[in-house]
Amino acid sequence: MPDVAIVPAASPRFEDAQHAFSGGGDGLGCQCQWWTLTRSEFDASTPEERTELLRDEVNSGTPPGLIAYVDGEPAAWVRVGPRTRQPRLSRTRNFAATTEPWDDPAVWAVTCFVVRKEHRGQGLNGRLLEAAVEFAREQGARVLEAYPIDAAHSSRSTNDLYYGILSVFERAGFRETARPRPDRTIVTLDLTA
CA dist 170 to 32, 107, 119, 123, 176, Å? Predict the structure, then answer.
């Protein structure tokens, strides 16, 4: 059984985040900036600029996510943080049905998973989500929200599952609060209970 450790993506772990992103999917090009920039800002930015934005986040003292290590190797990533720091969420029509106010900094969101190909199928998303819940709770979040795909209603490629899978969130105790499309859900977890 491999040894798995999950830690905040804080300085000096930037290169570890890059290693987790480099194992397949869109992580290296996106740098987990999709939700932190408006569409026009994202389209106008280069991968190098997005890399520097993530570097600034990791070195800022407020970790933008968590990194999972498998036997000491950076293997996976999850973005978790206040929704107010992910402004594109409030501009996304599919998420308009949220039951939480967009300007509440105590509402956090889990928005992106990246798992290196050689570590897929080992339950890392579930472990990352459990760690994200605890991290958000420790940081004073009131609610944790996410926008996973319902795989029973979707035939998306693995790269398009970066939102997460509904069943993983349900096992972690999240409840569905809206379903803007047959394959897209909004789920929440009350962290005050």
Answer: 24, 19, 22, 14, 8
Q: Which whole-number Å values give the CA distances from 124 to 30, 92, 94, 105, 179, in the listed order?
A: 20, 27, 26, 27, 25
DSSP 23-90: TSSSHHHHTT-TTTS-HHHHHHS-HHHHHHHHHHHHHTSS-SEEEEEETTEEEEEEEEEEGGG-GGGG
71 φψ region: left (φ > 0), alpha (ψ -120 to 50), beta (else): left
pTM as predicted: 0.95
CA distances from 116 to 27, 36, 79, 129 (A): 10, 22, 15, 16
Alpha-carbon gap, residue 32 to 113, rounded angstroms: 9
Full pLDDT tens readout for the chain, 193 residues: 789 999 999 999 999 999 999 988 888 999 999 999 999 999 999 999 999 999 999 999 889 999 999 999 999 999 999 999 999 999 999 999 999 999 999 999 999 999 999 999 999 999 999 999 999 999 999 999 999 999 888 776 666 788 999 999 999 999 999 999 999 999 999 999 8
Matching residue, tokens 């509440």: 104
